[in-house]
Specification:
Oligomer: single chain
Structural class: alpha+beta
Largest sheet: 4 strands, mixed
Shape: globular
Number of strands: 6
Number of helices: 6
Radius of gyration: 16 Å
Helix content: 25-40%
Strand order of the largest sheet: 1-4-2-3
């Protein structure tokens, strides 16, 4: 278990969590929460590494994804990586997908929030009202095909 903020691995993950430029440069990002990890897997995508805060989660994810390395971090370290106020105790390192669809343009939202809305679901409606409508929109692990 990693328990120090001085740990090299933690510092690498912290840089990735805090810097959009680092995410773009490395082509990787962190997903936070079991629901996002499950959605990622359901979409046929691969988790590169799983980060957990307790032994129960570690055992679950080692069983769920036996070929994916699972790294346990002290809860305060995992919280420091999380973009949410109430972390769930599990995150994953993933490659940022490169779109293979023939959309005119697409949108990948990071930390997107509409006032009064939790996860940006209404973004689809905003795009539909736009003059330049995308054919695909990715919002908080959901992919919408429009038009």
């Amino acid at each position: 278990m990693i328990a120090s903020t001085q740990n090299v691995y933690f510092r690498q993950m912290k840089t990735l969590a805090d810097s959009a430029a680092a995410r773009r440069e490395q082509g990787k990002t962190l997903l936070d929460g079991e629901h996002l990890l499950e959605a990622w897997l359901a979409g046929g995508r691969v988790l590169q590494q799983i980060l957990v805060a307790d032994a129960e989660m570690e055992t679950y994810w080692q069983t769920r994804c036996p070929t994916v390395p699972v790294q346990r971090l002290a809860p305060h370290l995992l919280s420091a990586l999380s973009p949410v106020k109430t972390p769930t105790g599990v995150m994953a390192l993933v490659e940022i997908p490169v779109s293979s669809c023939s959309a005119r343009f697409g949108v990948l939202l990071e930390r997107f929030h509409l006032p009064g809305h939790g996860n940006g679901d209404d973004m689809r409606n905003h795009c539909l009202q736009s003059r330049r409508q995308p054919r695909a929109l990715i919002a908080e692990s959901k992919c919408y095909r429009i038009g």
